[in-house]
Amino acid sequence: MSRPDDPVPILDALREDLDTGFAGLYDAYRVYVHTVALRATGSPADAEDLTAETFLRAYRSLISTRPPDLDTLQPRAWLLTIALNTLRNDRRTKARKPPPGPLDNAPDRCDPTQNPARAAEQNETARELAARLALLPERQREAVVLRHVLDLPIAEIAQVLGVPEGTAKSHVSRGLAALRVHHREAVNAAR
Amino acid sequence: MPLDDLEQALAGLAAAPPARVFDRITARWTRATSPLGDVDVAYTEHGVAWLRPAALGTLAEEFKARFARPLLRTDHPPAALTDALATGDGGGLDYDLTWLTPFASSVLSAARTIPRGQVRPYTWIAERIGNPKAVRAVGSALGHNPVPLLIPCHRIVRADGLGQYIFGVDAKTTLLRGEGAIE
């Protein structure tokens, strides 16, 4: 997905009326937050919980006595940061959950009209890819999801992960390289 | 540079949340007619959460102080809610009252059992919840009923008169007359 992130109308709507503006904020960023949540938890039910919790925390921050400054707020990075912080807090406070498994509800993508080798590559289904993504180290997975699933710029990824841009870039390229090795192996095995 | 297969496949992993997630975040409110006149009612995915006369204009403020959730107006409330408001009989509705203390919750549960057209004294509630000396606390819990009318706290009266009501004794008199409980 690649949608230009223009937060100005969303922030204007929040200033105008917090609650209807918040519905607009949800609409604009729900896919970003839920995708990060789904790839981080590996479970549709946990991803729903985390998405709901993230937006509730965001709202509570906006109505708190020390709300974020809407003149400088970058809402997408802000929401994704809340999502990852919530995830890490949950992991700390709750009993540890097993790492994300291969099961999720990503649709299979397969085009039978392709030639066999090509089809093998396409048979690299979303489900399998999601499973391998889940096996990456946490930071690499988050970086790859933010960069290649959600198309965020490196500067914003660095902000969300709380690391320097060079580190963010390195997480992305290492994660992608690891996925690429598996990808080639899968394609070769299919040949 | 064109995206390779892997990058294309990754881009396909973005996923929108199911519609129900939005309902877990935001609550709805609506305005409807009732035996108390126009009332504003807020509800969450769990049920009816707050009711105030429209004239007070305090619904959103009070609801948010408790729930800290966005509250969006809807003109399409569940039919069961509009029906219950029109008749003043909220017996069949679900409520979002989990935040109440166990004591307040038991008081309101007891109040829900009083049929339309009847009244009970405060002592009846206190005895029914197994706390016969807590008559004053019962009055306080009823006075803080977040969903008056639907949970009929107006049907609890003093032995020597109507007693107080969250929206005033006049409203209590009107409601009980309308239900045929008093003349």
TrEMBL record, chain A:
Domain called RNA polymerase sigma factor 70 region 4 type: residue spans: 127-179
Gene3D superfamilies: 1.10.1740.10, Winged helix-like DNA-binding domain superfamily/Winged helix DNA-binding domain
Biological process per Gene Ontology, one example term: DNA-templated transcription initiation
Region named Disordered: 90-125
Keywords: DNA-binding, Sigma factor, Transcription, Transcription regulation
Keyword Cytoplasm: no
Pfam family name, one: Sigma70_r4_2
GO molecular function: DNA binding; sigma factor activity
NCBIfam families in UniProt: sigma70-ECF
Identification of the protein by name: RNA polymerase sigma-70 factor (ECF subfamily)
Species lineage: Bacteria, Bacillati, Actinomycetota, Actinomycetes, Micromonosporales
Automatic annotation (TrEMBL), chain B:
Pfam families named in the record: DNA_binding_1
Classification via Gene3D superfamilies: Winged helix-like DNA-binding domain superfamily/Winged helix DNA-binding domain
InterPro entries: MethylDNA_cys_MeTrfase_AS (IPR001497), MethylDNA_cys_MeTrfase_DNA-bd (IPR014048), MethylDNA_cys_MeTrfase_DNAb (IPR036217), WH-like_DNA-bd_sf (IPR036388)
PROSITE patterns linked to this entry: MGMT (PS00374)
Regions crossing the membrane: none
Chemical reaction(s) catalysed: a 6-O-methyl-2'-deoxyguanosine in DNA + L-cysteinyl-[protein] = S-methyl-L-cysteinyl-[protein] + a 2'-deoxyguanosine in DNA; a 4-O-methyl-thymidine in DNA + L-cysteinyl-[protein] = a thymidine in DNA + S-methyl-L-cysteinyl-[protein]
EC number: 2.1.1.63
Gene Ontology molecular functions: methylated-DNA-[protein]-cysteine S-methyltransferase activity
Keyword annotations from UniProtKB, A to Z: DNA damage, DNA repair, Methyltransferase, Transferase
Family stated for the protein in its record: Belongs to the MGMT family.
Protein name according to UniProt: methylated-DNA--[protein]-cysteine S-methyltransferase
Organism: Actinorhabdospora filicis
Lineage per the UniProt record: Bacteria, Bacillati, Actinomycetota, Actinomycetes, Micromonosporales
